[in-house]
Design brief:
- The protein is an alpha+beta fold.
- The protein has a single domain (17-152), classed as Histidine kinase-like ATPase, C-terminal domain (Heat Shock Protein 90, 2-Layer Sandwich).
- Helices cover 33% and strands 23% of the residues.
- The protein has helices at 26-42, 48-65, 113-120, 145-152; strands spanning 16-21, 73-79, 85-92, 123-128, 134-141.
- A 5-stranded antiparallel β-sheet has the order 1-2-3-5-4, covered by helices on one side.
- The radius of gyration is 15 Å and the shape is globular.
- The relative contact order is 0.21.
- Residues 24-131 form the Histidine kinase/HSP90-like ATPase domain.
- Keywords: Kinase, Serine/threonine-protein kinase, Transferase.
Length: 153
Amino acid sequence: MPNTPPKPTPAPDADTVIHHWNYRPRSVGLARAELRKTLADWGLTALEDTATLILSELLTNAQRHAHVPGRHIETRFTRLPTPTGLRLEVHDASPHHPQLRATTPPDAREGRGLPLINLLATDWGVTSRNGPGKLTWAECADVSPRGAEDQSA
């Protein structure tokens, strides 16, 4: 995990979309669809592949490892002040923070999600939140030549 301090969660506004999900595998696909719609609305479709993969991994981790009966999972998609930036958050009620493993055996059936996030995200982390549980967050940006042009404009 990067050695950066936790970033505060932006307050919900026109640049933040919040959804609540049940602990069902189907929720991951539904969340990806909502993220795609949000990215299209914000003109950030260049982030779609990276962002949906990161969201899938974060939400799947919460589904598999952070189930707390009677609680739901919250996702937040936040457009960052940079023209091509996005923050994804997954809030769950479990106090257990995921740990990035140094290595994952080739035949392992799990353990690849956080290394993927570490590779794809510009930054990510886990922090406690107000109330029970934690939030796991990741940021990504369009680093393509077109995205770089947008940032310098």
